């Protein structure tokens, strides 16, 4: 089984330094909700219907271009099984953002969301950015968790919400990019609002704005 | 969906899979650490550039970034919230979507925080203050796994480790780990050891799924060894406290550096936006300093054919702000005196470009050996940021009879790119000794800046008298000529580490009868580019005397406690040829000096290169 897993993961994280910064993202959720598939869809644009249970932890890297910056994402895929919990929670502290996933065809996985959220609160930093993702939305016929319930829970927990499908490649890219953006926002916030309002900022006409990075969404 | 796999086979595959991941992660983290080091080095340079310009001209009210003078009404500058320095409007960068701005350096600082992820570590520290900055879970896992393994190898383990052959099929990387005796402990130990790093798991740790509960724990508890967990707890604590060497092994990307003080950390840089240390008495420890030996640097020395190597280590101690060069040994040195097969080597260092005697450190002299062992640490008290502009020169010399010195070779290490955070670069290394570079400043006079002077020969009569003056009979002070010299100012002087000097000029006119007329300017405090505008007037000299005289102008940095003023550089004017070991006269200066003598009562401006 391990060899199957190994084969699924490529090994060219590469020594490429051609990026501006690195974000670490963790995907969590019950076993078999589609975390690994989701990551493979995003990183490799591939999908396998066969289920290969993830051993402990694994990761992939992907460099994206977002807001005029090259951002290297190290995306950690975790095993949902409790027996790996000690290992997986060890990775919570290093993550800037989380994708918390459930399976819209699996009630139990949805019920566990609250507990996963508690895990994040316990093991991660206070400003952890979380996106709630209801996966397998291609399986409309077998849906047991309505979009509305998903959205309500997300609101309740203060997370943003997406329904997605790793199989049909729905909202996969969007999920990651949105997560990157909210992390960027958090970053700007922590860097710039830490300073008290600047007093003597006389904005002369010669203000050197061209040095500021020219993008709309985040000041990073 | 949870599959029921037999525990034994699962453990082995799990172990392999997880270690694979840990190693892959380590590679990513190593790359990342390297990138971050590069970034921080660049920021350091930027800061240094800002700081260096302070030395160009010291001004009360100038922009901290570009040194532009700030006005009282217009362009008064404003204080940057980040660093509290006053900067001009050009040196501000406005942040997107805000009216807030930062100075160029703080802006870069912010960029670096983004790029290094330090913003995150700072935020995270609010919740986990003890968490190592770049310490990753993977590094910790590897570390704790290893610690656990070590522990098991010391204390006879229960149950005994499995046989080595179990990891036989693993990839080479895993074999490497296989040398740790505990390697074959199942991955459960890995989990257990991680568990000990964490606080008690919250209630939410309880199973959320239908997955089997702690399958890996079950057999243990049945075996009736509940103390296992605490045992491994102790193991880790002991190891940590004892600081055993395995922590230092380059296992994780960050963890090995933990024990040393990481040098290029963000906060260290930001806490010293402007260089603020000066050389102090502390710099004398651990090394011999020869004062007043500046001239020997320009003086004569022999050169042997350079052979051999020197072993030393370079470290920076953040706590004491000192650069430490640990000189260990040399081998295969050339004989200082080839015919007599004699060699009494010693090692000398400078932090170039400073070649003043205060910047010199020497080891003791070893007698009659070409394989000397020194084991001496030479120290410089210097801000880390300052080092970006410096090169470490380590040279080996033979001390012969009558203090005759023979150059045996040197190594020049540019410190700008030196990674003081890296353990590798802190360790001892052999460096091949090299001959002096062609244009080496040690064999040629050093350029220690320029001195601007204005000179005039004042004669009561016209130039005719000068031409008629008989050669060689110049002992006629009655002619009452005067040599007027205005020392205007100097620039590019070897400044102190705070970028300033308390400098003064000495003028010494040596007449043909070796009589010396000496004058001294007042001290100009806290200036890197002093403008003394001070007049030296040498009275009662005749043109013929002057043509056989020499005028030496030397610049000094006044010692704070008045012991030894530091020689900054000097220049010589005069037709007399160079004295051995003395300052040199450049041909251009010669021409200018001739002009002074041949055009009495007229001012001649000249720029003298200081050596
Ligand atoms: N129909 C459908 N199946 C999916 C989707 N994502 C994953 N799966 C399947 O669900 C099973 C578990 O997926 P996996 O990614 O291994 O789940 P993980 O345990 O959370 O990593 C596999 O058989 C996948 O093929 C999806 O979006 N749609
Ligand atoms: Mg998986
Ligand atoms: Zn400025
Ligand atoms: Zn500033």
From TrEMBL, chain B:
Source species of the chain: Bos taurus
Keyword Repeat recorded: yes
Residue ranges annotated for the RabBD domain, each copy included: 4-123
SMART domains for the chain: C2
Record domain C2: where: 306-428, 462-588
Comp. bias regions, Basic and acidic residues: 209-231
Region (Disordered): 201-276
InterPro entries xref list: C2_dom, C2_domain_sf, FYVE_2, Rab_BD, SYTL1-5_C2B, Znf_FYVE_PHD, Znf_RING/FYVE/PHD
Ranges of biased composition (kind: Polar residues): 232-242
Its biological purpose: May act as Rab effector protein and play a role in vesicle trafficking. Binds phospholipids in the presence of calcium ions.
Subunit structure: Monomer. Binds NRXN1. Binds RAB27A that has been activated by GTP-binding via its N-terminus.
Molecular function GO labels: neurexin family protein binding; small GTPase binding
GO cellular component: exocytic vesicle; plasma membrane
Record localization: Endomembrane system
Designated name of the protein: Synaptotagmin-like protein 3
Keywords per UniProt: Membrane, Repeat
Annotated membrane topology: Peripheral membrane protein
SUPFAM superfamilies: C2 domain (Calcium/lipid-binding domain, CaLB), FYVE/PHD zinc finger
GO biological process, one term: intracellular protein transport
Pfam families for this protein: C2 (PF00168), FYVE_2 (PF02318)
